[in-house]
Predict the structure.
Amino acid sequence: MNNPENLKYSRDHEWIRAEADGTAYVGITDYAQSQLGDIVFVDVNTVGETLGQGEMFGAVEAVKTVSDLLMPVGGEVLELNEALNDAPDTVNKDPYGQGWMIKLKISNAAELDTLLDAKAYAAEIEG
């Protein structure tokens, strides 16, 4: 599985890329998209809301199942990746790039330290 070193990972299979300005991009991991299968819909209706770490920010629907999307860190949801409305399968094709789901303003940067690095996440999914 592909787990870029510049990201942090939650045990719930979300990734986060923190930017220098205190914002961050969030999506699901390559492992998560492979387990879900063909993604047909990304449902995020929390733009403008401030959510805590571990709270649900949306859901992703695949052909066979629906899975909750959880905040890897707390913050205000600033933006949804609107491109996913027309092409939700982008999450399958490019989960760490064009398949990002939300942009957020991080409330507490220290929460990033509670997440897994690429090596620890790889060990987690290999079980």
About this structure: The first strand starts at residue 8 and ends at 9. The chain has a mean pLDDT of 97. Residues 118-126 form the longest helix (9 residues). Residues 12 and 59 are 13 Å apart (CA to CA).
